[in-house]
Amino acid sequence: MSNHARHGIQAHGDHLPSSGPGMLISAWLTGTYFFVEMGIGLWTGSIAVISDAFHTFSAVGGVLVAIVAARLAHRPADEDHSFGWYRAEIIGALVNGGFLLAMALLVLVMGAMRLSDPIDLPTGPMLAAAAGGLLTEFISLGLIWKQSRSDLNVRGALWHILQTFVGSLLIIVTALVIHFTGFLLIDPILGMGFGVVLLWASWGILRDAAHLLMEGTPAGIELGEVVEALVALDGVADAHHVHAWALTSGRYVFSGHLRTVDGVDPQAVLESGQKLLKEQFGFFFVTLQVEAAALDESSEGAVDVTPGPVSGRDEP
After folding, report:
1. Tell me: the pLDDT tens digits for 69-83?
2. Whole-number Å distance between alpha carbons of 277 and 254
3. Structural domain of residue 102, as residue ranges?
């Protein structure tokens, strides 16, 4: 005999993928300033300003990818996508992580080339472009900072804007150092240092996105602790075939099999198990199979992380 519970009302961390007004305003701000900065760069012929304008353009692309992914994630479930479109957010984060990685490598290569042949840069236009960029980017960061802490997709967009923010700071430092000391190598040195930071950021986003796409156990969820809590429930003999994964950031799913002892109401076990998983561990969607007798599941051992029957306290 088996019973199944499939409910999906309560979200882990109350998170829903959302582009939100902050993302839209950030896209407009950075997009508008890209044209302003590119105009300054073309007018003065400053390679540094033109380069930073392309960094701003990459931030616009990153934010737009995040917005599109978040809007796709709001599509309802259908027969072809029974879990909905939540994974679009993770795919968006993966694209943004790859974009950041490409930008990091480009910055490192350009910096290495400049080390052997530094150029004299006009400091006035550099300072003007950087000041405008700092204002635009500071506003954009403030608009999406809070959401990025719980949303992998928005975190990718945040790093794009942070990249341009730091780029503007580096332009100011570079311009001041060149103006007062004439040390031209400061430009490629600081640029390559920031390229290393971008590599670290892109790796973190790519690693987390790939982990979720591979159905990895979400961060903060210890599957062993979940199993121990389940087998401690009254009437549970063992728990096996347990799986925890994330549809998207903050939307965690659990499935598992519970074998009961003789004479126990399976509906009561089902309800107590679902309540435990939702209230104590915060799972958004729970599927439990309650069994009165162990089934032959030897062919499914490759996807069962429990080493064997994990016994509960009520097993005879």
Report:
1. 778 888 888 899 888
2. 8
3. 16-213
